[in-house]
From TrEMBL:
Superkingdom of the organism of origin: Eukaryota
Pfam families on file: DREV (PF05219)
Molecular function GO labels: protein-L-histidine N-pros-methyltransferase activity
Protein name per its UniProtKB record: Uncharacterized protein
InterPro entries the record matches: METL9
């Protein structure tokens, strides 16, 4: 509760300075990522499935090198202050002409990684 309160309070005070607020939230997000086990991303309680057939057919995946590389690349992009400042500036300009989803596509932001080649075969 204390961490959430701190985030909300800082967000309230930093709302006028968007870039400062973004840096603060990015820092909090990095701290959370560093304290999270990747194995927890692949954990699922199959007892909660409504269908026994689904529970039996569930195949638990594990993190592999391709997934780790995607995560590291994403962290490098996220930690690049110059890139984030450029994105902030570009979004401010492009917002006059495009929706946020289109802007993120143009800037190649928000990439998703569903399965690695190893996980599919």
């Amino acid at each position: 509760m204390g961490r959430l309160y701190r985030i909300l309070l800082m967000s309230f005070y930093l709302a006028r300075y968007r870039w400062l607020s973004e840096l603060f939230l990015q820092r909090e997000s990095c701290d959370l990522m560093n304290n999270t086990s990747y194995d927890s991303w692949y954990a699922l309680d199959t007892a909660r499935f409504r269908s026994a057939v689904l529970a039996e057919s569930f195949v638990k995946m594990n993190i592999d090198s391709e997934t780790v590389e995607f995560i590291k690349q994403s962290e490098r992009k996220s930690d690049s202050t110059i890139l984030q400042l450029f994105h902030g500036f570009a979004i401010s300009l492009l917002r006059l002409f495009f929706e946020k989803t289109c802007i993120n596509g143009l800037l190649r932001r928000g990439s998703m990684f569903l399965f690695s080649a190893e996980q599919l075969y």
